Amino acid sequence: MEIGIALPHYGANASPDAIVHVAQSAEQIGLGSLWVLERWLRPTAPVNSGWGPPAVLADYYGTVYDPIETLTFVAAKTSRIKLGTSIIVAPLHSPVLLGRRFATLDQFSGGRTIAGLGQGWMDEEFRTANVSKKYKGEGFGEFIEAMRAVWGPNPVSYQGKLYQIPESQVDPKPVQVGGPPIIAAANAPAAVERAARLADGINPFVMNRDQFQQMVTGFREMAEAAGRDSQKLQIVIRANSYIFETPVAPEQRQPLSGSLDQISDDLRWLAALNVNHVFFDLNMSYVPIDKQLSYVEQLHRTFVQG
Q: Which residues on neighbouring strands pair with residue 203, listed in sequence order?
């Protein structure tokens, strides 16, 4: 299992210098990956997230460097570490344009790209993009198919209900054969099932151990039912962690938050479930970047050393 870290490309710490510092330090430490997210805007009015009453978005979403441009910048400053999106909101984009952007990043990075996609949730972003939310659900599955077509042999073509690509040459192609692995943000059963059929893996949160273990089992069973080898599909966990110097009471913490010892125990549990990758995003907890690096380095070393 690999350990990664989110770049400080959003929030109070975001700057080109900070991004390069974390990227190069993470590679030197031996971490497996660097991650970015997408946020188009931070409305000043309360928004409906679906996870509670409407609320104003946290101020760290006020500054967000673009994900693909950030990773392309970082690709020129690093040599081996993987570069992932968690996530880009697919329906806000064209599968041809986004496919070409990922292919370009994969070329510039020498084949280090991981394409994390999600369906999005903020109505304000869909209205800003002038995109209907009908592009979620079945449309998200079409988006994945169309983007894979872009990465495939020329001439490229795709005919779906919502997306069409006329027979065309679309280059460059990615370095990775078949394109970068596509991991889909998924926690709800329908999203997990869709990822099991169409994606190369899932990118979930861990709310509690029992729920997560059931989801992993279900994901692998769904993949096998779809005629796929579930062991070849990736499970990449986003950990929006809060790290404390002393242990947190078990009933008051979620997995991958708490003390370093508690989180290390969580990592060993996840490794036993054959999770492929865990990356830590500490930007939401306003942790200074050197402290972020120190925490994740300690977790990496503790986990690697057993």
A: none
